[in-house]
Predict the structure of 6-phospho-beta-glucosidase.
Amino acid sequence: MEKIKGFPEGFLWGGATAANQCEGGYLEGNKGLSTVDVIPAGKDRLPVMKGKMKMLNCDKEHYYPSHEAIDFYHYFEEDIALFAEMGFKTFRLSLSWARIFPNGDDETPNEEGLKFYDRVFDECHRYGIEPLVTITHFDVPMHLVKTIGSWRSRKMVDYYERLCEVIFERYKDKVKYWLTFNEINMLLHLPFIGAGLVFEEGENEEAVKYQAAHHQLLASAKATEIARRINPEFKIGCMLAGASTYPNTCAPEDVWKAMTRDRDNYFFIDVQSRGEYPNYAKKMFERLNINIRMEQGDEELLRNNTVDFVSFSYYASRLASADPKVNSQTSGNVFPTLRNPYLKASEWGWQIDPLGLRITLNALYDRYQKPLFIVENGLGAVDTPDEKDYVEDDYRIDYLRAHVEAIRDAINEDGVELMGYTTWGCVDLVSASTGEMKKRYGFIYVDKDNEGNGTLKRTLKKSFYWYKKVIETNGKDLE
């Protein structure tokens, strides 16, 4: 009988969250207003996230789920203790920029905000959990959106640089692993959530997005430069919303369409990992009449400060066709994709494709030849607790088991170098795309509904105990 292969020694098992979806305490501790704080739940959410509907302040007509979220701000000790009980080796979280610099352009940081993250990191280390920190995860101080237009302005690079100087110096002995931007390619699909962009009627939106992208890429390179100066032991990664795109048929036009879709998303990581703009992007800018405004030293900065590793989220594969008559798109996903008849889908229309994760791992590793890190993967589903508040979420276990098996194959059979795996929403939190609580990902159930009602009580799901066993056996026991 063939011996079951596990995962490499020191593999970083854990879970992932984001401040904008779990932290709450939205104006506590002198925190400033952030972009996510003005994104409502309901029908206006998507227009606001796309930058099509201008909402720069909160009103009384909408519900804003980020304001309390699951109140990690007050529950972090309890939550981290539960992560430790599962055996987490790492915990991915993000910083709220507006908690550290309430306006973004403040002369000095907010000490109360810095102390909060000190406490969070100390709590992690108390249990031997290594923090994996996203510097900015769909998070821009609203003051910078209102005063300079957020990432459409080059001034943002300076403000981001100041943020990095402060956090790298402050946490140089508490955090080793850093990600510069969460799903940086989301800027192209949800420009307000990705970069705080709001569009004016008649302007060239693609030009605005790619100029903002240039500023974020400069900021990422600057962060990498600063990190290596402050602590050479830091490991700096980039992060994309990952997934391979399949051609709808073997028609060459469909294959070409799928390849160009993938390139749209690889573009950011090509620059962050290779250090220069790829030729296909330069040609695209020519076709779209986009003139990226660069200054002297930009290309050198990008070239000399590439990332140490490439991280990504993976939920579903994608499908593309060159035929304009083929338009049976799936629901619920930010990325345009056709329905794949060979795959089942989640309740939100996200297609379940474990082998697609192995394909994506191989595609990224072949392309970049750098260590990879899966920092988001999971199943959003409606969980129904029984009379004892227990959720028997076998559907989530099945999803995760199949994806962990695919990861194990990519490592052992294909030779992919993978640093770790953090499931998304290890504790239930607010969905970024829909603003819902009922779209749950966690191993830990949080008593809260879509309207903000509930006790916030934490209870353990069946998947909690399953994942604990997976970590204990380093991926050998997935039953």
